[in-house]
Structures are given as C-alpha cells and as structure tokens.
Amino acid sequence: MADQQPEKTTAPAADAPDSQPTAVTNTETPKETTEAAEPQPQDKTETTTVQPAVEPTAAQPTTAETPAEADKAPAEVQQPPQAEEEKPVAEQPEQPAYLAKNPALAQFFERLPAIVSSSGHAEMWGVPLKDSNDAPTVNVLIKFLRANEGNVKLAEEQLTKALKWRKEMNPSALAESTSYSATKFGGLGYLTVYKEANGAETVVTWNIYGGVKDINTTFGDMDEFVKWRVALMELAVKELKMAEATSVIDYDGEDPYQMIQVHDYLNVSFLRLNPAIKAATKKTIEVFTTAYPELLREKFFVNVPAIMGWMFAAMKVFLSKNTTRKFHPISNGANLAREFPSLKDQFPKVYGGSAPALQEGARTVNLVQDESAPAAHEQSKEQAKENKEEAAQEESKAESTPEQGKADPAVTAKEAPAADAK
124, 142, 250, 323: which sits with the fewest CB atoms below 10 Å from its CB? Predict the structure, then answer.
C-alpha cells in the first residue's frame, strides 16, 4: 500500500491547483502538456476565423500572438487612408468668382499652357501671360473669348495665331524703335489721350487719310503700310496700360481697356477703286481682326464721301456684327466732338472742340525725312492737285445741301442711330 500511494498523489496533482512542492517536480512534463492543451480552444476559434488553412503545431503560442497583432494592424492601416481622402477636399482652394460663373473662361485657362507652348510666345499687348490669378492675363483672355462669342475652340485658335503673329512681327519694336518715311506717312496718323473729370482716360487714334499726298508712295508697299499702321496701334495699346490692371473686367460689363478710333476721309475721292488702297485696307483689317480683338470701343468715320460705300461693305465681310455695330459714319467732321460732351473742349477745333490741331499737340510714330523727299514732294503736289479737281467734280455732281453733299444718303441715315447708341 505504500507503493500505491504516490500514484494516487500524482494523479490528482495535475488537477489540483494547490499542489505541494514535491508534486511540482513531477509536473514539468504535464506543464508542457497543459500549456499545449490550454491554447487549443482559442487556436481553433481564431484559426477558423482568421487563418483557416493553419494547422495546429507545437509553436501555436506564437501563432496565437500573430492573430492578435493582425487584429491591431488593420485598424492602424485603415485610419490614414480615411484622413488622406478628406484632406484634399478640405484644402482645395476656392475658385475665383470670374471662373466659377464662366466655365468657358475656366476651360480657356486650362488650354493656355498648350497655347503658349504651341505659339512659342507668351506676351500679348505688353502683358506676360500667366495664370488665372493674374488680372492682366484674365483680361486678355476675356477679350479673346468675347471676340468669339464664348466659343473656347475659336478663341484658342485666334489667340494662337495672334501670339505667333506677335512673335514674328514684334509690334512693340515697330512702335518704339522703328522709323518711318515722313514723305509716305507724315500727317496721316496721330494719338491723343483725353482725361475725364474723374481721372479716367480716353485714348484716341486718328487716321487722316485725306492727308495722303501720293497714293502709290503711301500704299504702294502694302507691308510697309501695315507696319506703320501697327506701330500707331501699339502706341495706343500701350496707353491703355493693360499690364497695370489690378482687377478683372466684367465679362458682360463695361471694359475700360478700349480705345476710340477716328478715320478722316476729307477729300479722299481718289480712294474710289484704287487697287493698292483696297489691298492695303483688306490686309490691315485682317491683321487687326486677328491680333487686336475687343480693343475698340467705337470707331468714327468722318467726312465720308459718297464713293466710300465699298469700304463699309468690305469691312462687314471681315468683321463681326459685334464690331461693326461700333461703327459710326459722320458726314461732317465738325460734329465729332458732340459725341463726347465731357471731352468736347479737348478735341481739335476742326472736329468741333477747342484744342489746337493734331499736328500741334498730338503724338505720332517715329518719322524721318527721305533723301528723295524733294522729288517726291513735287510729285505729291501734282497728285494733290488732281485729287482736288476730282473732289470738286464729285461735289458739283451732288445736288444737295453742303451737309449732305459729302456723304452717301444711306450713310447719312445711319448718323442718327449712331448718336442714340452713344
């Protein structure tokens, strides 16, 4: 019976929590069995849920820790993506109002980098083209978009052509550093800037075609004539100070970056059907339509003779209705100042104002005297004499009042609506 007592003591020792120290020496092997047996229910449950393919092994204590860490890992990994998804929405900059209410303008700006890259030029009217946060750049794009009635594709095509033209022609240099023949262009073009009482400025360009002395001399070289005309235009554009703009113009509102143009056709009966003049006129219109959109506020044709009807018809072919509606033919140049009551006194006397003649106070392009000026002057005197004779014949044929004798009745009829438009 003494031999059997250890067996009875050993058997309960595995189950008894309060085992004696003597029994512990015999429980080293059962301890491994206990530790291997106790995790099994947990291993079976988690193995079935997380890793079905894992077979129970002797290293299951390590396996039991791995699912626990795996449970923590997804929670730590999933949180950052949620924060990243919300972050761009919170930090996205607000779109400027002029882009938000004009999707076409926003789309136009998206195309601007490609336009600049394609043309190889990034300057328009003295404005370096930047992004939609730059007011001068926005104003430039608005003008091109306006000129194409909001059609982004057409505006893009026109801006690309205009930039390529400026790169090739370098109109700024034509205005600032190029000189022109006084014999050919002297007295034909001027620039004035008139100031309103509130400080606003009105830029006016003057083309005095009645001052042409010799048709072939002035219009014979079409390219030279166009360059001279572009130079005068660039002087006026510079006075608009578009690069100094601090605010964006209203797409559908008033545009302060526009000028007035006056074309004086007094004694220009020689313009009747001259091929050189018609070619130069056509080319000038094409260039200005492409390269200077929405810079014209209004255009006045003064002292218009009856034979000038063909010119107005030609303009309507190349220009949009939005542009031609700005045209105002006036038969008597002395009535021009009436169109600008607040500036009337600053206009030259010959146009109904109180200021000196253009030759005395207006600016013009750089002019130089030609070496052959004396011979050309004699020729121009003869041409001027012929012009006066033709003008006298035209006036004698027109049986009307002095006011109407210089203008086509159809043109005169348009004079009243022009005044209403003002």
Answer: 250
